[in-house]
Specification:
Elements: H1 2-46, H2 65-69, E1 73-77, E2 88-92, E3 95-99, H3 108-115, E4 123-129, H4 134-141, H5 149-152, E5 154-160, H6 169-183, E6 187-190, H7 191-196, E7 204-206, E8 212-216, E9 234-239, E10 242-246, H8 252-261, E11 270-272, H9 284-290, E12 294-301, H10 317-323, E13 330-341, E14 346-354, E15 359-364, E16 367-372, H11 383-388
Parallel strand pairs: 3-4, 4-5, 5-6, 10-11, 11-12, 12-13
Antiparallel strand pairs: 1-2, 1-15, 2-3, 7-8, 8-9, 9-10, 13-14, 15-16
Helix pairs in contact: 4-6
Amino acid sequence: MNKTITTVEIGKQSTLTARRRKVLLLVCGILTFAAALAVILVGYFLGWWGGVYGLHRYDKRLYDIRAIADEQLSVHFLQTYNGNGDCIYIKAGDDDILIDAGPSLVGAASIAQYVDRFCTDGVLEYVVVTHADADHIAGFVGTAAVKGIFARYDCRTIIQFSQTQSESQLYYDYCRARDDEIADGAKCYTALQCCLGQQGAQKAYELDNGITMEVLYQRYYQTVTSEENDCSVCILLRQGDNGYLFTGDLAEAGEASLIAENPDLGKVVLYKGGHHGSGGSGSDALLKEISPQYVCVCCIAGSVEYTQNAPSTFPAQEFLDRVARYTDNVFVTGCADVAFDGDYGRYSDVGYRALNGDVVFACTDGRISMYFSADDSKLKDTEWFKNNRNLPAQWS
């Protein structure tokens, strides 16, 4: 009897062990499936699988310089703290490019402090100077106490505007600083020389990681105009199927010329908002041609530096209304604090602060990432927008 009982008990134990094994396998399978699903979902939203929009948002405490430095291409829209102006730094593999240098002579120091995080050899392979307005060239000049960009860096190739009506002292100071850099070995070409392939200039330059930088022809490289903004050098970067368009302060006539002279311009993933997002830039014709997915605007939002008409301050309501037909991915570097000055009967800027701050648009293996030194919100979701602009129907 004892043997029989023992046999039955052993059989029960074996059956229980088998059941436990099945339950354990089932639990392990469920956990493995859940973990795999979680990885797939996280990877999808972070763009690990290629070509999927991955938005990496970092506030000023988590601005990840190392991650940005590892990107194949990064386009940095620098916040200017001394008023409206353009300064764009581009890292294409080992190549460093600077487009314009902001509105301040002493601002060269803050530009260099930023650029030196990524440019470790003191060499700017390409410098593009779009036009001669002060808010684009001041940082190239510097002061007796603060070295300008030309004095700080070994600038290998300078591509500048082909003509200007400027007779300002700052323009002549720019010319002297540029000529000193040429004397130190820099090559300097106008945009027209690049488009015509004259004196060693090239229309397209091959950058690292298979990226190309093309100087786009537009007629105001040659046609005399009193509109300084229309003299702006226009640059198109190509990275695979992605296009990145920079048009300086090009106004409506210049944009019409750009379209007419470049019928294969095509859609772009990124558009640097023309003329700081003014109502006279980003025309319907240009936006229809390029259909941008992302728009970054270098400006001090709401600044009354140029106008007392609030809807026309940068970025202008009419500019945003046009852009809204294509994308709500609009980001702006800075904004102004404005107060009414009773003594003069007008509004004045009383301070500048970050909106999105320094905005970095990056792309590696087709995966798009964005980094912000301040607020990571789209413009339409910021308090500044809610208090100062009307929501376009497409963004509601």
